[in-house]
UniProtKB/TrEMBL annotation:
<feature type="transmembrane region" description="Helical">
    <location>
        <begin position="211"/>
        <end position="232"/>
    </location>
</feature>
<feature type="transmembrane region" description="Helical">
    <location>
        <begin position="528"/>
        <end position="552"/>
    </location>
</feature>
<dbReference type="Pfam" id="PF13520">
    <property type="entry name" value="AA_permease_2"/>
</dbReference>
<feature type="transmembrane region" description="Helical">
    <location>
        <begin position="564"/>
        <end position="588"/>
    </location>
</feature>
<protein>
    <recommendedName>
        <fullName>Cationic amino acid transporter C-terminal domain-containing protein</fullName>
    </recommendedName>
</protein>
<dbReference type="InterPro" id="IPR029485">
    <property type="entry name" value="CAT_C"/>
</dbReference>
<keyword id="KW-1133">Transmembrane helix</keyword>
<feature type="domain" description="Cationic amino acid transporter C-terminal">
    <location>
        <begin position="567"/>
        <end position="617"/>
    </location>
</feature>
<feature type="transmembrane region" description="Helical">
    <location>
        <begin position="382"/>
        <end position="400"/>
    </location>
</feature>
<feature type="transmembrane region" description="Helical">
    <location>
        <begin position="49"/>
        <end position="70"/>
    </location>
</feature>
<dbReference type="GO" id="GO:0015171">
    <property type="term" value="F:amino acid transmembrane transporter activity"/>
</dbReference>
<feature type="transmembrane region" description="Helical">
    <location>
        <begin position="176"/>
        <end position="199"/>
    </location>
</feature>
<comment type="similarity">
    <text>Belongs to the amino acid-polyamine-organocation (APC) superfamily. Cationic amino acid transporter (CAT) (TC 2.A.3.3) family.</text>
</comment>
<dbReference type="InterPro" id="IPR002293">
    <property type="entry name" value="AA/rel_permease1"/>
</dbReference>
<feature type="transmembrane region" description="Helical">
    <location>
        <begin position="76"/>
        <end position="97"/>
    </location>
</feature>
<feature type="transmembrane region" description="Helical">
    <location>
        <begin position="332"/>
        <end position="354"/>
    </location>
</feature>
<dbReference type="Pfam" id="PF13906">
    <property type="entry name" value="AA_permease_C"/>
</dbReference>
Length: 642
């Protein structure tokens, strides 16, 4: 066999710094955790996963969104807007389902990107730390999302006490004259309550979230049933408008779909609980799919009823559901709807605070953050320390800062995650990693296995034999600082190598084409000529890459990479490419102010990675071995769990 150095760490100068950008972690991070170390409790089954997914997705926004989108974009066609947005979200859900089934480990999109892409790309155009930035963006998403949700609870809760300023003094909002800020003790208190609940255990917190989610669903069912009764009684006046079913045309309906798409964000929370699922290969895909389907059905049913009760142009943009019932003599329904909004916000708050400690834990396991965040409590079997830290941080933001202006930043982390997950599906199907890292703690076992294999292959024990005359050569170096590991000839034939190269270039062509196409379409401030040229170039690159990926065969190792036997995403490469296209378009159109704020946060993340993560990464001193050889090493080594 050929002799090659397999170390990716320990490099010097520019070479070492460059290789740190192309590190990839092991598919199943459970393998590199010592047996006896506290693990997350495997308590979740399909009902709990569905409750977490639905509770994290169905927020109070739906109680407002139907009025705003119907008035400004879709009209009576709001239901179709929700359907199209649900189908678009399902594209990402399919990708998440396969990766969660293959790689059931904490960290969600951060974990998947680290496996498939690495800490960064080895191309000049993408010389950034991809996996780290995805995790860093998700931390921002869940922190701001949780704080924004918490501050939205107190105004709704105040309605039960008589009005916006009727909360008890200890919970009411107060303005600090010296600082010019409005503090919200109620929001901070709710964050602390949820944090304590999450520290108790995943079984207890998932039960509480399931209970709140069921109550919220009951409120939505009440809206659907009572609204249907009123609708038949009054003759569905909302559908009899003179403007027809599409008053804003098809473009308005599609614009409404882009707006309500963000109402489906939240199902990805299910993937972050992968290590706490009893049967992840079966339950995770079902949990993600059922949660998204239930959300879509609830959204569509509510929108069908509400746009039929009141003409779209007469809807109250702030309280469309309560106003619709009040207009038909059911003023008391306001309290039912408001209770649903409070329940939805509480459930979404739990869904926002649940994934963040697990993402921090996954990043700390990989050495990119201090080990403090990776500690799992022996009694509760949850990452208590990271949960407390994130709870305190979210409570501080909810207490002292009006984060509504930062709400757009929440979508950046989610859309980036959706894009990288879809790209990861393409990578795993066409060019899955054929080598995996072996950590320093396993290199001794690797060396002993090599020595045993060499001894078995040479029973005479002739240490003076001339290795240059042997066809298969194995060299063992005692110093693990610069190991030479066994590596075979390139897997398969030259045609297979050529196929992998073409597939990699095609995936790159798709990504570049999508970026150019969506940027050109969104650049409305340009003249028609550069927009047209950009659209043509982007479309050619996109269609060429998609055509080649559809024509060439997928990699033979796609069925055995990671955990086999789980869910497989259908319609590859079309489905993930459509997912990349839709989410990139939405990402680009978030607005300049949002991107400026996110850019500052990501720049901070780059500095954290350079000065800490790069030098403490668990892949710093690993050697890379073929997948089959790594599996054999882990199976024959004691003290490790699979």
């Amino acid at each position: 066999m050929a002799l090659e150095a397999g170390s990716s760490g320990g490099g010097r100068g520019w070479g070492g710094g460059f290789r740190c950008l192309t590190r990839r972690k092991q598919v199943d991070s459970d393998r590199v955790r010592v047996e006896g170390q506290p693990q997350l409790a495997r308590e979740l089954k399909i009902p709990e996963l569905v409750a977490i997914g639905v509770g994290s997705t169905v927020g109070a926004g739906v109680y407002v969104l139907v009025g705003t989108v119907a008035r400004e974009h879709a009209g009576p066609a709001l239901t179709i807007s929700f359907l199209i947005a649900g189908i678009a979200a399902a594209l990402s859900a399919f990708c998440y389902a396969e990766l969660a089934s293959r790689c059931p480990s904490a960290g969600s999109a951060y974990h998947y990107s680290y496996i498939c892409v690495g800490e960064g790309q080895d191309m000049v155009d993408f010389a950034v730390v991809v996996a780290w930035l995805i995790g860093w963006a998700l931390v921002l998403e869940y922190t701001i999302g949780g704080s924004a949700v918490a501050r939205g609870i107190s105004p709704n809760l105040a309605l039960f006490f008589g009005g916006p300023d009727s909360l008890p003094w200890i919970l009411a909002r107060h303005q600090l004259p010296w600082f010019g800020i409005v503090v919200d003790p109620c929001a901070a208190a709710l964050v602390f309550v949820v944090t304590i609940l999450l520290c108790v255990g995943i079984k207890e917190s998932s039960f509480a979230q399931g209970l709140v989610t069921v109550l919220n669903a009951c409120v939505m069912v009440f809206v659907i049933v009572a609204g249907t009764y009123i609708g038949f009684k009054i003759g569905w006046v909302g559908y009899k408008v003179t403007d027809g079913y599409f008053p804003f045309g098809v473009n308005g309906m599609l614009a409404g779909s882009a707006t309500v798409f963000f109402a489906y964000i939240g199902f990805d929370t299910v993937a972050s609980t992968a290590e706490e699922v009893k049967n992840p290969q079966r339950d995770l895909p079902l949990g993600i799919g059922l949660a998204l389907a239930i959300c879509c059905l609830l959204y569509m049913a509510v929108s069908i009823v509400i746009v039929g009760l009141v003409p779209y142009f007469a809807m109250d943009p702030d309280t469309p559901i309560s106003s619709a019932f009040a207009e038909h003599g059911m003023q008391w329904a306001m309290y039912v709807v408001t209770s649903g909004a409070v329940l939805a916000l509480c459930s979404t708050l739990m869904g926002s605070l649940l994934p963040q400690p697990r993402i921090l834990m996954a990043m700390a396991r990989d050495g990119l953050l201090p080990s403090f965040f990776s500690d799992v409590n022996k009694q509760t079997q949850v990452p208590v320390k990271s949960t407390i830290v994130t709870g305190i941080w979210a409570a501080a933001l909810a207490f002292a800062m009006d984060v509504s202006q930062l709400a757009g930043m929440v979508s950046v982390g989610t859309l980036l995650a959706f894009i990288i997950v879809a790209i990861s599906i393409l990578i795993l199907r066409y060019v899955p990693p054929d080598e995996v890292p072996l950590p320093p703690s396993m290199q001794e076992s690797f060396r002993l296995n090599q020595e045993r294999d060499e001894k078995d292959s040479d029973p005479a024990g002739d240490e003076n034999c001339n290795t240059s005359h042997r066809k298969d050569v194995i060299v063992v170096v005692e110093s693990m600082k610069d190991p030479l590991i066994e590596k075979g000839l390139p897997r398969g034939t030259m045609e297979e190598m050529r196929r992998r190269k073409i597939a990699a270039l095609s995936i790159g062509s798709v990504c570049v084409g999508v970026l150019i196409l969506t940027s050109s379409v969104s650049a409305t401030w340009l003249t028609i000529l550069p927009i047209t040229v950009g659209c043509v170039i982007g479309a050619v690159l996109l269609l060429a890459g998609l055509g080649i990926l559809s024509w060439i065969d997928q990699d033979d190792g796609r069925h055995s990479f990671g955990h086999s036997g789980g869910f497989m995403c259908p319609f590859v490469p079309l489905l993930p490419v459509m997912c990349i296209l839709i989410n990139t378009y939405l990402l680009i159109n978030l607005g300049g102010d949002t991107w400026m704020r996110v850019g500052i946060w990501l720049l901070m993340g780059v500095f954290v990675y350079i000065f800490y993560g790069r030098t403490h990464s668990s892949l710093k001193d690993v050697v890379y071995v073929p997948v089959a050889q790594a599996d054999e090493i882990y199976r024959t080594s004691s003290g490790y769990v699979s």
